[in-house]
Design goal:
16 helices; two-stranded antiparallel sheet; mainly alpha; 368 residues
């Protein structure tokens, strides 16, 4: 039986951070290759599955969408997910109002939703992660002067090549990291009667796939199964994808400095105790765009970002993106904003697509 461990020491924390640092760049490069449709180590196994999935859906991956169609597709898919979640939750006996609110929370940001049925939370975690990754990568393509791509192809690619492999790998590691035995130790130490108070592996498995802001696998941590191995996995699951997206951003845009700034800013967000993910990454892109625009305007008289001149439209969309991120904490002061704030992380992706789509296919130095 594996006993519960105490708080991690400095040596353990340092080793965990070193492991995270060693994995960030390779994983960021892997995600960049996935969304550039380049060969990866998993291509031999996943290429036939992806082609079959897209073929059955009638999706032509090489047929790019404009940003409006991409955004409409993302919203339509998220709306269908919400509807399915609402029906599933209502069928469990929840009151209609409660089922509605929980379905919105699960569809937009499942980790910040109150506890719900495990199957619904797990499914919501998967689709939220895939949708966020797809839209962020489309945003980066637009900023790079490329077409934004095809939402359905990006969604399948994100789920199949990023979310699923990482989730399976982390779940397998958690299963062999002493979590089950630690849960047993907790039960023996703290549960005097029958087992209702003992957290179960099935209940904690929900956290393997439903984590803050669309991150993947156990970022919420198995609270009662704290071993050195599970603490490492909790760190990796909460930080690996957000930090990797920063490095992917630098590779996809061809601007390594912007990638380093994105990685550093994401690290500061995580160090402050806040969750990060694709929506936060879109917000950081908006911050960089606005700051760079101001600096370039003061220096040269023209607002530019990634060698492309910005107009009022791009600046206003970047400000809207930031506004949607800021509105969520304000619900504690202004309850009337709750209907906007519940899906705020999802809505954030729309103005990000708007300013990226406006810059898509625009030659460097061209004015919109």
């Amino acid at each position: 039986m594996v006993p519960l461990s105490g708080s991690p020491g400095w040596i353990e924390q340092g080793l965990n951070l070193a492991i995270l640092a060693a994995l960030v760049l390779p994983f960021g490069a892997y995600m960049a290759d996935v969304f550039r449709n380049r060969k990866t180590a998993l291509s031999f196994a996943l290429d036939p599955v992806e082609r079959a999935a897209l073929g059955l859906a009638g999706v032509k991956a090489d047929r790019s969408m404009d940003w409006r169609t991409y955004a409409l597709s993302a919203l339509s898919f998220s709306s269908l997910v919400f509807l399915a979640l609402y029906i599933a939750l209502a069928c469990t006996g929840l009151p209609a109002e409660r089922a509605f609110i929980l379905a919105v929370q699960l569809a937009a940001d499942p980790a910040h939703a109150p506890a719900g049925p495990m199957a619904a939370a797990t499914a919501a975690g998967f689709v939220s992660t895939g949708t966020g990754l797809a839209v962020f990568m489309a945003t980066v393509r637009g900023l790079s002067g490329l077409r934004v791509g095809n939402f359905w192809a990006d969604l399948v690619r994100a789920e199949l090549r990023v979310v699923l492999p990482v989730s399976i790998a982390f779940a397998a590691l958690v299963a062999t990291a002493g979590a089950g035995e630690a849960l047993e130790a907790f039960g023996r130490a703290h549960v005097a009667d029958t087992v209702p108070h003992l957290p179960s592996i099935a209940d904690e498995a929900r956290h393997l796939f439903t984590t803050p802001s669309g991150a993947v696998v156990n970022a919420a941590a198995v609270q009662f199964a704290a071993t050195p191995s599970t603490r490492l996995l909790a760190l990796l699951s909460g930080a690996l994808i957000p930090l990797g997206l920063g490095y992917s951003f630098g590779l996809l845009t061809g601007d390594r400095l912007q990638g380093a700034l994105m990685l550093g800013a994401t690290a500061l967000v995580l160090m402050s105790g806040h969750a990060a993910g694709p929506a936060v990454s879109c917000g950081l892109v908006a911050v960089f765009m606005l700051v760079t625009a101001v600096i370039s305007r003061l220096r040269t008289g023209q607002a530019t970002y990634l060698n492309r001149r910005l107009g009022r439209y791009e600046v206003s969309m970047a400000m809207a993106c930031l506004g949607l991120i800021v509105v969520a904490p304000l619900t504690a002061l202004v309850p009337a904003l709750s209907l906007i704030a519940l899906p705020a992380r999802l809505w954030t992706l729309i103005p990000a697509l708007a300013f990226a789509g406006s810059l898509s296919n625009r030659p460097a130095g061209a004015q919109g």
